[in-house]
Amino acid sequence: MAPSFVVVPQWQGSVSPRAMRLSDGAEAIRGDLPSSVTREVPVPVEAGDSLDTGIDRFSTLMMVRERLTAALRGGAGPVITIGGDNGVSLAAVEHASRQHPDDLAVVWLDAHPDLHTPDTSPSGGFTGMVLRAITGEGADGLTLDPGERVPLERVVIGGARAIDPAEDALIQDRGIVSLPVEDLDPPDALVAALRATGVGTFYLHLDLDVLDPSALAGLADLYPFGLSVDTLNRLITALRAEFELAGATIAGFAPASPEAATDDLPSILRIIGALTRPAQP
């Protein structure tokens, strides 16, 4: 079944000074998606309150999660979720997990592992906690329930190079697979790591900051020595050749202006093409 798209111009999960550009980035991508298979989730203008959870703007993040969950409910086939910030992956992975119970792994391609909880986060930004929340650990209301959570042994992180000490300790203590950029080309190591989880389907989370800044200008945070677009697309193609794509997130596009967005969109559309064209066995 051909993928559909849902656009969620959420920025409230980010603590970057350029966070509001994430909303503009989602809207820019939306302009190039097929309207017949694209929906948009409305995001409130207000920032929201923490409500003593340790998560900045918690109230708005909860509202958007509920709206995205409702938009995804009842749909069949893979959905490509376009953020905004990468907090949108929480509800998107939840939806994919319900469709593929006990047979879903998460491939997390991101400059950050996003493994904090409110207790360890230095910033309070949910984008730094979302993968941990997907595994069921974090603040009530922004974690997945036991029936939908994806355990850490079915998580593969790739391209992370901005890792906080608490995250590094968790990776070491729990034996989380985290492949550095230099191990992602060729894609054999990533494919082998996903194969080792024993599942047949995967959800791909893609924060565009996994790319090198030379590949894409419109990033909220710049981390050198990342992937090229060609390498990323080879990874996607190799994964889809062996495993079923249950869904994907593309997040982190933060163009400085509409003109700058236009310069980056061809690269983003190439990535979307790698996700949506028929898989080659």
Structure commentary:
The chain is of the alpha/beta class and 281 residues long. The protein has eight helices and eight strands. Helix 1 crosses helix 8, helix 6 runs parallel beside helix 7 and helix 7 packs parallel to helix 8. 50% of the residues are buried. The model has no long low-confidence stretch (mean pLDDT 96).
Distance between the termini: 16 Å
Which structural class should the secondary elements be placed in? Answer: alpha/beta
Taking the sheet with the most strands, its summary is: 8 strands, parallel
- What is the C-alpha radius of gyration, as a whole number of Å? 17 Å
> Average pLDDT across residues?
96
Helix content: 25-40%
Number of strands: 8
Identify low-pLDDT runs. Answer: none
Strand content: 5-15%
Query: Number of DSSP helices?
Result: 8
Main sheet: strand order: 2-1-3-8-7-4-5-6
Strand-and-helix sequence, N→C? EHEHEHEHEHEHEHEH
Shape: globular
Lay out the secondary structure.
Elements: E1 4-8, H1 21-30, E2 38-40, H2 58-72, E3 79-83, H3 89-99, E4 104-109, H4 130-134, E5 155-158, H5 165-174, E6 177-179, H6 188-196, E7 201-207, H7 229-242, E8 244-251, H8 258-276
Parallel strand pairs: 1-2, 1-3, 3-8, 4-5, 4-7, 5-6, 7-8
Using brief descriptors, characterize the structure shown.
alpha/beta; single chain; 281 residues; 8-stranded parallel β-sheet
Summarize the structure.
The protein has 281 residues and is of the alpha/beta class.
